[in-house]
Amino acid sequence: MGKVFKTVEEIQVDQVRFVDARFDLQDKAAGKQAFENGHAPGAVYFDLEQDLSDMASGNGRHPMPSKEQMASLFEGYGLTYDDTIVVYDQGAAPFAPRAWWMLKYAGFPNVYIVNGGVAALEKAVDFTSEVTSYALSTVYFDWQDQLYAPREAVKAIVDGKVVATLLDARAAARYRGEVEPLDKVAGHIPSAKNFDWEQLKEDGMLHANDALRSKVEKNERVVVYCGSGVTASPLYAVLADEGYDNIQLYVGSFSDWITQYDVETGTNE
User: Fold this and answer.
1) Given strand 247-249, what is the order of strands in its sheet?
2) How far is 66 from 44, CA to CA, in rounded Å?
3) Considering the chain, what is the average pLDDT of its residues?
């Protein structure tokens, strides 16, 4: 998949389309308010719940939107496959990676994440409160279905019909089933390993480390998940940036899995 993260020095700011994906799970209006207060020139705003999830679906807490919903979003903002798209959030957060993954799933070839988020980007560009309008685009989408793992594909792994590693991006205590603040069942998808995505944070940026590299080999097929497909996104993005090329995101994640199947507790490490 190639390079995912870019530093501000690597971005030609006058030749890209910016996407602002800031969000706060505790204050759901905060991201949009931050965008309205000031954003990168020409940026458009993708809201985690209004744009990057289908909250009317019952398939988890931040369910996968339909292809039609995603097409409407991307074309509505005038994006094309010729664009270089640069996504940012508050930095070392899961929201830009979620937007990045959905754009890659929709086939956009040149999409990157600002490593360091707003704090880094503000050093390179003058933020503005002016909102840019774009003409609708028409995109002949080349959907990258191989990037996505639906529930049935994960069940095939659990049942041993498909060989792949399930990697749970949640905190270890949630993975082991000792606590569960959000979902009605505690534990993890059977056979899954655990790698807390918070371990990727370093000085407001996201980076791979030796602990991650030792967890999964580059030749493995890896399916990442979390509680609702949000915090698994940075884990996916970092693996992709490291050159892992056989990875999938289970967007429904644990909150979708438990609607149909049993879980296990403890650890597989």
Assistant:
1) 193-194, 165-168, 222-225, 247-249
2) 20
3) 96
Query: Do residues 244 and 222 make contact, with C-beta atoms less than 8 angstroms apart?
Result: yes
Q: What CA–CA distance (Å, rounded) separates 204 from 48?
A: 20
Which residues are identified as catalytic? Answer: 226
Alpha carbons 151 and 118: distance in angstroms, whole number: 34
Full set of structural domains in the chain with CATH: 5-144 (3.40.250.10), 148-257 (3.40.250.10)
β-partners of residue 87 are 19, 113
Where do the H-state alpha helices sit in 77-125?
95-105, 117-121
Q: Which two tokens stand for residue 238?
A: 């970092």
CA 123 to the chain's CA centroid: 25
Give the phi and the psi of residue 267 in degrees, each rounded to 5.
Answer: -140, 150
What is the C-alpha to C-alpha distance for residues 37 and 29, in angstroms, rounded to an integer?
Answer: 12
Tokens at residue 85, please?
């798209």
H/E run at residue 247: strand 247-249
Rounded Cα–Cα distance for residues 121 and 223 (Å): 31
Task: Please give the average per-residue pLDDT across 189-216, as a whole number.
Answer: 96
pLDDT confidence band for 244 (50 / 70 / 90):
very high
Euclidean distance between the first and the last CA atom of the chain, given in angstroms as a whole number: 28
Given a contact cutoff of 8 angstroms between Cβ atoms, the answer to whether 112 and 85 are in contact is yes
